[in-house]
Structures are given as structure tokens and as C-alpha cells.
Amino acid sequence: MTRIIAGFAGSTALGVPKSGTRPTSDRVREALFSALEARDEIAGLRVADLYAGTGALGLEAASRGASAVTLVELGAQAARVCRSNAALVTARAPRGSGPRIDVVAGSVRSYVSHLATRSLDVVFIDPPYELPEDELRLDLEALEPGLDADALVVVERRARSGEPAWPAGLALETRKAYGDTVLWWARAASAPAE
Question: What domain count does the chain have?
Fold first, then answer.
């Protein structure tokens, strides 16, 4: 069972599509969000969950205080599940202070190519393991203009996939392994002083 771990929607069970998704394990999500909260990198921030699947990463961020969350999912069944899960989390939000949660049923590349400049603070990218590395590289390149200065990008891959090819505006910060799952943390370059 996939569930929200903490925050106002803690313990809320999330729907999971019958096939085609690989939700991030509770253990990995707990470690990820503990590290993010220790760095003060969730509360009040704008978050995107790309290749959302169930939306668990983005919805966990919403439950823990993100101000706006966008779930992007191409698969029709998974996008429907994301909408349903987003409604569950929204219903648990404190009255008048819940985050804005949007679901985009479409491709990651299309979504990131149309982002407003500097519109995201934290981005989770958990593509299917079979996504070719060149496709991931193109997604990261298209995402870069939409990242705020010092934005954080966390890419989840299988250990044997190796490090993503980062565009010039993203620099690897750390790598954390959890069994066969690896989280790659990268930071957007700060804006030049004006």
C-alpha cells in the first residue's frame, strides 16, 4: 500500500494504477522528505512531480507544506489516479490554507517546455526505468529555464542506470543509494548578480 507518510494528510492511503507505475517505496520517501525538511526545502515552495505515477512524491510535499504542487503524468489511467489522490489530499488540508495541487495529463517534455521562467523550487523526476538516458537528458535541459535560482532537482533511478547527464545549469550535489534505488540531488545555478 502506498500512503502519505506525514503532514496534514499523514496516513492517507493513495490509489495505485493497476499497471505501468513503480511507486517510490515508503522507506525511500521517508528518507527523502526527512532530508528535505532538515534543509527547509518543502514548506512554502513550488514543487513539480514529473512522471508522477501515483503522485506520491508531490502529494507528500503538499502534505508537508508545499504551497503549490503540479503532478505531470502521461499515462491516462495514472493521470486519473493522480487526480483522485490529489482530491484525497486536498480534502485533508486545513480549511483555507491548503496547497494548490494541479494534475497535468501530458508529457513531461511538453510541460517543462512551457514553464514560466523560474517557476519551480523543487522538482522530483522518477521516470520509468526503461526511459533512455538521452530522453532524461533532454527533459533536464528543457526543465532548466523553469527552475528558480538554487532550485533542487531530485532524480530517482535504478543503481545500474548511472548518473544522469546534467545540463550546464544543474550541478550534482549528492547521491544517496537505497538498495537498487538511487536518488541524485542536483542544484540549479544561482542567478547572476544584477
Answer: 1
